[in-house]
Amino acid sequence: MYQISAGNNDIAIAIILDIVYTSGMAITSYGFGNPLLGRQSSPEIIVESLRRAIIEGHLRPGESLRQENLAKHFAVSRIPVREALRQLESEGWVVLQPNYGARVTTLSAEEVREIYEVRASLEATALRLAAPHHTAQSLEAVASILSRSHSALDQSLYAQHNREFHLALYGPAQRPRLFALIDSLHSQGERYLQLKLTMPAHKQQSDDEHELIFEAVRSGKIDEAVRILETHLLQTGNLLANYLSRQLAKHAAGNLKGKAAKSAAA
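^ that's the sequence the OP posted. Answer follows.
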């Protein structure tokens, strides 16, 4: 309790007014809405936009990203652009270039193989935790995703359906940190997964393996489901890494041939 004396009336009044004010704030709110409520900040919007552009191939591996050009494109100052590029660098999407901007990271066979090795380990854990807690309703949701994946005419939606299937499988585990790690790896691997669109036979194999994983989970065969999942992910990582290695070697050979032809002509 506050002791009020003749010598500190002003202080006491200030304290009482502060108590009244803060108490009122606790039980009242303004009558007008907050236009920022629920909205992303500029850096977050820029990060998501650039990430999606890289995944979909609008920004190519090795392409330069100048801060001033991005600022003009998004109609913002360079500050949120700089923050966005730092975030993208921390996620492995770009490499910062001092006093310039950034460069989109190149595709790497070693990176895609590692992404899928880590995914295999984390997702096996997630599936083992989630499988016993699946319900008829959650399994129906997974089945619906599989059905959409099989019937989709737009092949560009393949990566989206693949992500939805895997994350729906692990949802009942209720492990938000594990889920966030897996989701991040899906994002990092998504632009590699687009390579599968050039290999229809392997995409069909992937769909068939998804069906086997789902049926094993639905039948309560958790060990079998985990085994199929791990094999599925490790084989996909090796497939994409080997394909990328061949493409990069072919590209390098083409460059050498072109340089040799120019030298001969000179």
